[in-house]
Amino acid sequence: FWLEAQEFLFYVLRQDSPKDHSAVAFDLNQYPNQIDGLVVQSYEVGADGTLSGYVNKDMLDYAHQHHLKIFAMVTNTGFASKKVQAFLNDENAQDLALQVLVEECKQQKLTGLQFDFENIPEQEKFQLNKFAEKASSLLHTNRCQLSFTLFPRTSDFPSLRNDYWDLKFKN
């Protein structure tokens, strides 16, 4: 699918203290009419589908007060290849994670989710597409948008990891 218009999203990495959040809010307040939404690093999904983390309440409140879209970012734990590989090959783990994430979308009034999976082994391209189709169908049925940011692992040499994949899924 194609976006109809370009959107400007502000990325908020995981913050550990209230002081960090006030600095982010200060930065956001400098550009009130130039930001369409926030992508807040929120959850890590483990190989077994369990989630850790949360959507930061200050960022959630800020987005709602300023009528911004808000996406919770979901990463693979530690960006570990073996863990994301196990997750992509375990339908029960995927179902568990997606059930919890759909509920979070509803309860937190999120616009959607952004999956940021890194170091995905190249041989998992097919499994990733299957997961993307499943996530897309379930999230869209529940009025939750979906976005993916991917950094596949196509080489053992960091400088050669600039390849990309096209995700092919319906919706």
Largest sheet: 6 strands, mixed
**Range of helix content:** 25-40%
Secondary structure tally: strands: 6
> How many individual helices?
5
Mean pLDDT: 80
Tell me the Rg in angstroms. Answer: 16 Å
Principal-axes geometry comes out as: globular
Q: Which stretches are poorly predicted, pLDDT < 50 over at least 5 residues? A: 159-171
Distance between the termini: 7 Å
- Structural class call reads alpha/beta
What sequence of helices (H) and strands (E) makes up the elements?
EHEEHEHHEHE
Strand content: 25-35%
How does this model look, in words?
Helices cover 37% and strands 25% of the residues. The chain is an alpha/beta fold and 171 residues long. Strands 1, 2, 3, 4, 5 and 6 form a 6-stranded mixed β-sheet that branches. Strand 1 (9-12), helix 1 (18-29) and strand 2 (37-45) form a beta-alpha-beta unit. The longest helix has 18 residues, at 91-108. The relative contact order is 0.13.
